[in-house]
């Protein structure tokens, strides 16, 4: 990454989202300073494209659905899991211990400034 004329190397690991590869993610999490979670939104150039705030709200709704389905499972089954969000409240990323930022980027155009800024915030030289 380049910042103020300096180039500082940053080690990035790309772990595909398939559930069979989840152990790979868990292998790198203890060493991670930050996580960039990419949601593919290929149709950003069309009129039907959604704003990043809309996508954020949709992700919060999906996580809330997961929380609701988990609460229906016996506590013995999920005893080793951790809770997500604040109990008794609808899930919001603002409840997360770690900062959550929603940003836009494009592999097609190379527009990655918002992601670079996020990484710079967590990777100090």
Structural description of this entry:
GO terms for molecular function: GTP binding; GTPase activity. This is Small GTPase superfamily ARF/SAR type. It comes from Arabidopsis suecica (Swedish thale-cress). InterPro entries: Small_GTPase_ARF/SAR. The chain has a domain at 57-125. The chain contains 3 helices and 2 strands, in the order E-E-H-H-H. It has helices at residues 22-28, 52-71, 113-122, and strands at residues 2-3, 6-7. A two-stranded antiparallel sheet has the order 1-2.
Which terms would index this structure?
125 residues, globular, mainly alpha, two-stranded antiparallel ribbon
Write the SSE topology.
Blueprint: E1 2-3, E2 6-7, H1 22-28, H2 52-71, H3 113-122
Antiparallel strand pairs: 1-2
